[in-house]
Hints:
The protein is mostly helical. The protein has helices spanning 2-27, 44-53, 60-72, 88-123, 128-142, 145-159, 175-201, 204-211, 216-233, 236-244, 248-253, 259-268, 272-300.
Amino acid sequence: MVKYLAKRIGRSLITLFIIICVVFILMRQMPIEGYFQNFDKLTEAQIQAGLEEQGLLDPMPVQLLHFFQNMLKGDFGVSHSYRVNVPVTEILADKLPISIKLGSLSVLVSLIFGIPLGTIMARFKSRIPDKLGTLFIVFIQAVPAAVYYLFIQMYGTLILDIPLLFDASNWKSWILPVFSMSLGNIAYYGMWLRRYMVDESNKDYVRLAKAKGASGNSVMFRHIFRNAFVPMVQYLPSSFLNTVIGSIYVESLYSIPGMGGLLVTVIKGNDNNMVQAIVLLYATVGVIGLLLGDIMMVILDPRISLSGKEGER
Length: 313
């Protein structure tokens, strides 16, 4: 177990290192306007002096080394257009709590509705509950999210008398964004849990349990559900962390001052330091989510051995 974790953490660090290098090099190919305030008003001499001061005239390996040194100190530079001369880390620290609250609530709602949805669909396979659940899943996956997000905002605000724009102090304004962000995960959890439960229901140990006289509900929840939930656990950390750091479209739609809307804004403003830091944050979250998913599978299912070749992933 320890050896496997060491290997997985090592691979994750290597992956992050490669991502950081690629993102850094790509960002250095962006227009230099993103590193200056009021670029149009600067003279050529002022631009060159600014580039030299920020180390942008150094060879790329030297720039990358300085970036890693600063990153280890928690320094990602300052914003040049979003909030001029304010440290990037300070801006992100203001935005993250709101996205974390919204994401946590939406994931909680997804689990509350998604897991029962998949269980009911598997329990009543090919019957009305299964067909209705399949219709919902197909709709969520086939229709562009922007379409039903707009309908939820349009009619939700009218029917439920909910404010159109987000207000952190008004609990009602949290309802529609949380519900919108949870729909994709509800369909995702329901679809995969149904699939895993149907697969498990065709295995020999289920037939044996039924042959011994165990009731259908007992077999479904004590055996099938428990075993089917294990492979689904691998995806929970990734979906949770990706939701927590914000939905770009939902946060922009409701004017939520979180991480999702921030990425759109800084891209439009050519704020290169901000874009770089946010992209690296998303990449880090993705890698950590995959690592946690593997670890959770091992914890929940002792049958998974990681000491030999069969544990390699």
